[in-house]
Amino acid sequence: TTDITTNTVAVSTAITRIAKRGGLTAADIEVSEMTDTLLGYPIQQQYNGADCIRPLMTAFTSYGSEYDAKLRFHKHGEAIEVVIDPDDFIEGSDETDKDTREQAIEYPRLFSVTAIDPTQDYTARPQVERRISPDVRAIGEEGIQIPVVVPPDYQRQLAAIGMKVSWARAQGKREFSVPYATNQDTYLKLVAGKPFALDGKRRIAESYRLEDGEIHIVGAYDRQSAYTSDVTATPALPPTPPPSNIGGVTLFAALNAGVFRDQDDRVGIYIAVAGILDAWPGALIQWKLDTDSDWQTAIASATQA
Question: How far is residue 279's CA from residue 276's CA, in Å, rounded to a whole number?
Answer without folding.
Answer: 9
